């Protein structure tokens, strides 16, 4: 524990601040100095009186406690234990909310009486603005654990106190409240700091664990034995492995900041993929797994799956590769396309057409901008058809290096080339046997490979690279592309014969900005991302999101909603502006300015058009009058108007 300056030195320093506006840098803690300045700026004076308004009445306190139910429920048992540790030492244990209002206090009668005199009682506000420098208010303002001793308090009336406070943070890094031990300054104990800090972490862990049912929980520590202790790290993951929150230790060990919530994938942070961790849990639920962070540091991890999921789902060990972009598991049976349908007319028409060819030997070509959901659509077609019990094999032709694509697709014989597996490979086409082969970004397939694919499609046989017998194959073919394949074929960039072969039916999926079901789609995405609770969206925000162009389409939008959902606190149920990532807020603001400018240009154009119309009417009136006064003599009327007769005839016809 640091040794604070003497009472006299503190008074002199505070006096200097009052008289000269500066504070000696030596001896005064930087947090205290900053807080003194804030207290002064709030209009407080060390000997000043307190206002009655800084105390919530009974009804206000009741409302506050109801709104902080979760925090209170998980803090009370910890506070009981804490109080047992400090009993008999002229102290009290206090819980305040994030605005510094005291919600629960435990103390001995004689000290409580003294504390009441300085309003250390439930309902009182200990925000710095009201009480000047004090552990509760200053811990809130500085966002860190702090001890304020004797004369460090800004108000002289509080100088008999020594107080230690620690903030309580939510899983998404939001300040929920403060835990504090306040006592007589002569009875201060160096261990108080550690006690308060540990108790605050215990409350945080209880809160995180209690609200984590919809998420996968990782309990971690650098030592195996550290798991389950108050010092353990906790990281929360969505079902598909995105980090959605964690306690401070967990986030620190993962080298994550609150800004990473919603955008960090666990498979990119650890050397053991999520599927493997889940599978390990299935076999040995209480055994921590040793993992390495990608920088080589070792951690022990105990995984707790989402509640109610594991018994029904055996995790898959067969795919140990980190999944850069995990996709939801396929719908078991039924009309999977109908389940994706949220009402857009063009999307529905595409689905209706695709439904008709599902199960028939007609290749489907899905066109649409990147991220519109082409692969999801293809999976739904597969899951809706008679081949749904067989594999759906997806290959992104743009992602496989050109020199490997042939081996990847068609397989190879043992030792076919340097670096090949010793026992050869059947190839992805054969893996799709009986099911569906999905060739994404088919437009990016090299021309030589296009010829090979065409042969396979015609002959329905594959022969592996490097020799070996041809093998008969049977699969449904779905291809997807973001480019206009017909144009590419016309320009010779894509083989026309292959184009006609894969284009049994072409469907075009609409970009997000043109979808007519934005509100329903948004609701569906939010529900999928928050399976355990009802979450909505503020109507103004929905409208702004609807007007955004979304160049990354559904992929981008789903990611934004995922992050926004992760930013919701446990007691929040409505996504609003504050929950959006900063870059999206910037984009939306920029878009709003562009829209305003476009509206202004449009209205100017309309005004200009309408005044042009008025001018035309005026001219016609003038011409009619001139003709009338010239009794139909057009040459005279033209002379009156100062124009030629031909011009008069021409203008009358406009
Ligand atoms: N209807 C939907 N419901 C929920 N999420 C969706 C939906 N459609 C798309 N997504 C999200 O968008 C992401 C992109 O979808 P998908 O990979 O199917 O698009 P794509 O058009 O094939 O993209 P690319 O052209 O880049 O291959 C998915 O991972 C998913 O998170």
Polypeptide structure, described:
The chain has 654 residues and is an alpha/beta fold. It folds into five domains: 7-209, GAF domain (Beta-Lactamase); 212-312; 336-510, P-loop containing nucleotide triphosphate hydrolases (Rossmann fold); 513-580, Orthogonal Bundle (Helicase, Ruva Protein, domain 3); 589-652, Arc Repressor Mutant, subunit A. The protein is built from 24 helices and 19 strands. The strands form five sheets. A five-stranded antiparallel beta sheet has the order 2-1-5-4-3, sandwiched between helices. Strand 9 (289-292) and strand 10 (298-304) form a beta hairpin. Helix 22 crosses helix 23 (634-641). Bound molecules: adenosine-5'-triphosphate (ATP). Adenosine-5'-triphosphate is lined by residues 325, 327, 340, 368, 370-376, 440, 480, 482, 525, 554-555, 558. This is Acetoin catabolism regulatory protein.
**Biggest β-sheet description:** 5 strands, antiparallel
What would the principal axes of the Cα set say about the shape?
flat
Number of strands: 19
Radius of gyration: 35 Å
Classified by CATH, the class of the largest domain is: Alpha Beta
Determine the mean pLDDT.
84
- The secondary-structure class comes to alpha/beta
CATH superfamily of the largest domain: GAF domain
- Alpha-carbon distance between the termini? 92 Å
How many DSSP helices? Answer: 24
State the helical fraction.
Answer: 40-55%
Low-confidence stretches: 308-333
- Assembly level: single chain
Which CATH architecture of the largest domain would you pick?
2-Layer Sandwich
What is the total domain count? 5
| Beta-strand content estimate | 5-15%
CATH fold-level assignment of the largest domain: Beta-Lactamase
InterPro entries: AAA+_ATPase (IPR003593), AAA_lid_NorR (IPR058031), GAF (IPR003018), GAF-like_dom_sf (IPR029016), Homeodomain-like_sf (IPR009057), HTH_Fis (IPR002197), P-loop_NTPase (IPR027417), Sigma_54_int (IPR002078)
Keywords: ATP-binding, DNA-binding, Nucleotide-binding, Transcription, Transcription regulation
Protein name: Acetoin catabolism regulatory protein
Pfam families: AAA_lid_14, GAF, HTH_8, Sigma54_activat
